[in-house]
Amino acid sequence: VCHSVFYKCVSLLPCLHNTCAACWSDCMAFDTKCPQCRVVVTEVRRNHALTAVVELFLQTNPSKARSPEELKAMDTRNKITDESLRIKRKRSDDYDGESDGDDHMYPVIPPPPPPRAVTLIRTIGPIRAAAFVPVPRIVQNGCTECETPGPDGWRCPPINSAHFNCSQCRRVMPDRLNDPTCTRPIRCSHCLAVMCGGYFAEGCASFNGSQPAVVNVYFQSRSPFRSAPSSSLLCVDKQLSQITTCTITNLPTDSFGSNSFEQRVVLDFLQSQNLTVNDAFHITLTRLIAKEITDQTFDSLVDADAQKSALCWRCINPLISTVLYKYRESITSQLPPHILQRPDCWYGQSCRTQSHNASHAAKLNHICSPRNP
Question: I want to staple 302 with a disulfide (CB 3.0 to 4.6 A). Which of 44, 252, 294, 306 is the partner?
Fold first, then answer.
């Protein structure tokens, strides 16, 4: 192995030591072990990153470059012509005591998978990217509705039936996204996560086993990937709910930008009108679905047919906060004078001070749009 600047650098796996392609070709003719650590090399790959670093180094230090004759000789010795090579070992009963040089290497071509009598499962999990392409997976079928009909009489076809995996508990469930007769929610309208909690009556196994008709789901955590603890402020049917049937028992802690003063204003108004938070939510939701009022956030969270939209326990919280904010806007004219006479905050609903500064939240009105700078 030379001790000069790398030329056509390659990495040896699994030890990840680097050497020139020509130097490794010379070593490979005698042994398949790494010349530095003596670990058996199983694969060789070109190191494009280190090669680029060497090129930049030689541009600033041309005196370190090899001569054209030496480079030509190294190209002649180089036997690595593929992007990725794997070492091929001969079986002990075929070993004749002599090395066959280049026959020890061959391009990595994965063998075709053997045919299997399984059902194709398409998996769609919780995501945050704007663009998403479902990745097919092949798993063993365990769908209960392949054996017995469901509560709506559905039974999977015996041939070429498509299925999903629940993104929470991995349970197999039918793919009925294009079935107009299916009334049970299957997939979140916003993040496209498939969940079995709204489809099966027993709920999702990842949420403490069998679920009741209405379960408590924790919405205070800002992390969208945190599992739901057993206690909370909001109730959502089986972790995947149609928005027109979900039940809200209290204001989310992050509603109105976590402005406790505005939350108290809404609660006091509801109490004076003998209404609940759930009533306020569904009154405004009905107006949004009917397009009497509009909101871009609401439109981005639901399907084109908002009446049939279903949201998971992660995505329904921003929907609840958006709907309650629109309700707060609609009751502004009915509030007491000391609420109406407050000047608007420069940052409006986007103000970050309102969540931790009680005097600022009470002094200024934050139910407004931010002013343009």
Answer: 306
Whether the ω angle into residue 62 lies within 30 degrees of 0, i.e. cis, is: no
Strand partners, 120: 138
At 102 the pLDDT is 44
Which pLDDT tens digit goes with each residue over 269-310? 999 999 999 999 999 999 998 889 888 888 888 877 777 788
Distance CA 240, CA 310 (A): 6
Q: Is residue 168 within 8 Å of 195, Cβ to Cβ?
A: yes
| Cβ neighbours around 137 below 10 Å, total | 10
| Strand-pair partners of 45 | 11, 84
Q: Which of 80, 75, 7, 89 is nearest to 44 (CA)?
A: 80
Dihedral sign for Cα atoms in the order 97, 100, 103, 104? positive
pLDDT digits (tens, 9 = 90+) for 13-64: 888 888 888 888 888 878 788 888 888 888 888 888 888 888 888 888 888 8
Cα–Cα distance for residue pair 69/75, rounded to 1 Å: 10
* Confidence at residue 334, expressed as pLDDT on a 0 to 100 scale: 92
**In Å, what is the CA distance from 295 to each residue of 217, 282, 318, 372?**
25, 15, 12, 20
Q: How far apart are CA 300 and CA 324, in angstroms?
A: 16
Amino acid at 146: C
Residues 6+ apart with CB under 8 A from 57: 5, 64
Enter the DSSP assignment of 104.
G
Instruction: Give the residue ranges of the chain where pLDDT is below 70.
Output: 1, 81-141, 207-239, 372-373
Q: In this structure, are residues 312 and 195 in contact, taking their beta carbons and an 8 Å threshold?
A: yes
Q: Which residue has the tokens 């405004």?
A: 284
| DSSP label at residue 302 | S
Inter-residue contact 211 to 334 (CB < 8 Å): no
For residue 122, the cross-strand partners are: 136, 164
Task: Give the integer Cα–Cα distance in Å for 313 and 224.
Answer: 9
